[in-house]
Design goal:
This protein is mostly beta strands. 0% of the residues lie in helices and 48% in strands. It has no helices and 17 strands. It has strands at residues 4-8, 16-17, 34-38, 42-47, 50-55, 63-67, 76-80, 83-90, 96-103, 108-115, 120-126, 132-138, 146-151, 156-161, 170-172, 175-180, 183-185. The strands form four sheets. The chain has a five-stranded antiparallel β-sheet with strand order 1-10-9-8-7, with no helix packed on it. A hairpin with a 4-residue loop joins strand 13 and strand 14 (156-161).
Length: 198
């Protein structure tokens, strides 16, 4: 895909366990934090200018998702099982959209991808096995933007066009749907364990 800077497993210094994580309360989320999203086991919360995720059955401390010194606020956020998938804009590279998936229980980033060329992630769906799909708005030059539906875990482009609904991703079972024009679309086959990250 034109404009993609990097894809695959990766780690930035802005993601990981914060130096003060050991000092944080073991409760999940810690007292006094602002809860952004939650399931039975996983909580995403803000503490000051930083955004964290924690798992109630993990012995590890909160995992740092975004630090205001480096990243814009999280734009799209999903929780599925032990995974948190999210996108943001990266301040150090203007016009760059970042997508990450974190296994919160293990405390490990399992997927990282960035898109240049003034890209913007408009929608994201996350599977309970850690795979991620996104709709990305791309601007190649003068004119209207086009949208691309892609499976992040292997980089496969599923569809692209100017008439894709930018917020139409829906996951039902193992089938991903999106809308182009007035028609609902889906991949030729459902996703399997082969699209899995640890």
């Amino acid at each position: 895909m034109r404009g993609r800077l990097a894809a695959g497993l990766g780690v930035l210094v802005v993601a990981g366990f914060a130096p003060n994580a050991a000092e944080a309360a073991r409760s999940c989320p810690p007292a006094g934090s602002s809860n952004l999203a939650a399931t039975r086991d996983v909580h995403v919360f803000r503490d000051g200018d930083e955004t964290y995720a924690c798992h109630e059955r993990s012995r590890k401390g909160p995992y740092l998702l975004a630090d205001a010194d480096y990243d814009e606020s999280i734009k799209v956020l999903r929780i599925a099982g032990r995974y948190v998938g999210y996108s943001m804009l990266y301040k150090q590279l203007p016009g760059t959209a970042v997508t990450r998936v974190v296994n919160v229980r293990r405390g490990a980033q399992t997927f990282y991808s960035s898109y240049g060329g003034y890209a913007y992630i408009t929608d994201l769906e996350l599977g309970t096995n850690g795979w991620v799909a996104v709709i990305t708005r791309l601007i190649d030059g003068p004119g209207l933007p086009r949208y691309e539906v892609s499976l992040g875990t292997n980089g496969a482009v599923l569809d692209e066009g100017m008439d894709i609904d930018p917020r139409s991703l829906v996951l039902r079972g193992r089938t991903l749907y999106w809308t182009r024009g007035s028609q609902r679309r889906a991949p030729l086959r459902p996703f399997t364990e082969r699209e899995r990250y640890p």
